[in-house]
Amino acid sequence: MSVPIRRGALARGRGRGRGLDLALRALTAVALLTDAGIHIHLAPGYQAGLPQGIGQGNLFLLEAGVAALAALAVLLRGSRAAYAFALLVALSAFAAVVFYRYVDLPAFGPFPAMYEPVWYFEKTASAVAEGAGAVLAAIGLARARRAGPARRVGR
Amino acid sequence: MNTGNARVTLLLAAVLLGAAGCAPGGGTAASTTAMAPPASASATGSMDMSSSATSGGSAAANSTAAITISGFAFGAPLVVPAGATVTVTNRDSAEHTVTADTGSAFDVEVKGSGGTATFTAPSTPGTYAFHCTYHPNMHGSLTVK
User: Which of A23, A29, A125, B67 shows a CA-CA span of 20 to 30 A to A73?
Assistant: First the structure.
């Protein structure tokens, strides 16, 4: 037994879904770009303060570059791969900032000892942006998976 | 289905925007007075240390005081006689600076993992706010009597 669906209602639903997907892409990109901007802002000081190995500031710049790339990918493509990349970047950055807040891990390989047992505005804002970016990217990834293997969300 | 997703997305958007609008949570710098002429400063990477904080007193050319940096914090505000020698010990792994907020009253870099540096407190009484140029959350104050 089938329920008749009016064409207009279906079109409205699709339009709403497309708008939602575009908003999701924009918000994910904003979160990642916020994170990137804060890391670029903090990088010079942290590089001077901890130049051992690759240097903390250089790691910040690396993270910022990858986050900006993920933001662009989500914004321009909105594909499953783009969301998966964004999720990986945001989640790893969030895990790193929380980990080094609480765990005094000594330097290893090219990574300096980055233990910093404080929260302050910029650091908190970047952690919130990373966490929000990860959640948004996960939602985007789930929606893109549901939309089908070849379909990009928001198109 | 779409309505449920819309609610979730709007909620997350609100969280994100709310976080972005948070007021700054960094430390506040103490008010400063007119700065004294720049004082001499030196830094070493050695572990030798140091001395107790002093307060009050008159002529204090040979008085000493200490700032110990630990956990990305300068500790309690310090009160020293004018011209006292201030020894800074850094127990963090990262390098820090002790830099006067305004003027050039003092500015020393302190290596990490037990590095020390010394500077001479200004000769003009007043409260001198200082910060670490590398880490924007680090603020302290030095009061010269």
Answer: A125
Between the alpha carbon of residue B9 and those of residues A32, A35, A85, the distances in Å are 16, 19, 19
**In this structure, is residue A80 part of a structural domain?**
yes
Residues of B in contact with A116 (CB under 8 A): 72, 94, 135
Low-confidence residues in chain A, pLDDT < 70: 1-14, 148-155
Query: Thinking of the domain B24-144, which architecture would CATH place it in?
Result: Sandwich (2.60)
CA distance A53 to chain B (A): 12
Under a CB-based contact definition with an 8 Å cutoff, are residues A78 and A25 in contact?
yes
Extents of the domains making up chain B: 24-144
Contacts of B99 in chain A (CB under 8 A): none
Task: Print burial letters for A22-47: b (CB count within 10 Å at least 16), e (below 16).
Answer: ebbbbbbbbbbbbbbbbbbebbebbb
Total domains in chain A come to 1
pLDDT tens per residue across span A33-60: 999 999 999 999 999 999 999 999 999 9
Q: How far is B138 from chain A (nearest CA, A)?
A: 9
Pairing verdict, β B107-110 and B96-100: antiparallel
CB contact under 8 A, A49 and B94: yes
With CA atoms as reference, the chain B residue closest to A23 would be: B9
Two tokens, residue A66 = 């990858």
User: Is A2 part of a structural domain of the chain?
Assistant: no
ipTM passes above 0.85:
no
